[in-house]
Amino acid sequence: MGESRTEKNSYTVIFAIVMVFVVGALLAFAAKSLEPTITENERLEKQQNILYAMGINQNVEGDSNAEFVSTKEAPGLFNKYIKEQVVITNGPDGLKVEDDDQAYLIDVKKQKEIAKNGGVRKLPLFIGEKDGRTFYIAPIRGKGLWDAIWAYVAMDKDMVVEGAYFDHAGETPGLGANMNKRFFMDDFTGENLKNNEGDFVGINVVKGNGDPNNEDKKDNKVDALSGATITSNGITAMIKNDLKLYIPYFKKLENQ
Questions:
Q1: Taking Cα atoms as reference points, which of 166, 186, 169, 182 lies closest to residue 232?
Q2: Which of 141, 139, 168 is nearest to 54 (CA)?
Q3: Where is the FMN-binding domain (predicted)?
Q4: Domain coordinates in residue numbering, the chain
């Protein structure tokens, strides 16, 4: 009986090991098979975000929710309105601006890590044209209360915000998560990233800024998210830390 039980136990262990390998192989195959689809979904989402920031969306008047162009329409509209994609580096050899039609696939998170470890960070920038106006859209990334936050900010050549889209990985529903609601995002349109002296200062997301209707577009401030001080501070830091990296590029524009 003991020998029989031992044989059964051995069979169970062997079977379990085989199943682990089989399941692991199937999962690896599934992940590899889905990779093109995942990449395509990421590409479409980035295109939708970039278009949204420059005002190409399906927003309904009076609705607080942000509505993107459809995934079916996004590639065509992206090709229509985005005239140039560039990658900016500012390393030991100075400022470099290179055309790259795959710039939207650059992982901002990875680039921040590269810079943190002493490397040269790649900064993607998307140059769009709509209604005779030129938009410069930059992707930025930061830290909220619980997890990552990010945005696409459209600017003119003077670094005045023309539109923005914000989103998050896990901010508090009804509080910090409201960063992707239009009543918050729309406040950034028209805000200056420079002060009256022409120095870059970013935009402070602060509570009780004395301008609840956001009528003053030169105070470098927008009203904070209610009950979300840490998230609001994270947005302020994200804007300042990431958009200031584009200053050499905009200074170059001034001299052209």
A1: 166
A2: 139
A3: 144-246
A4: 53-254
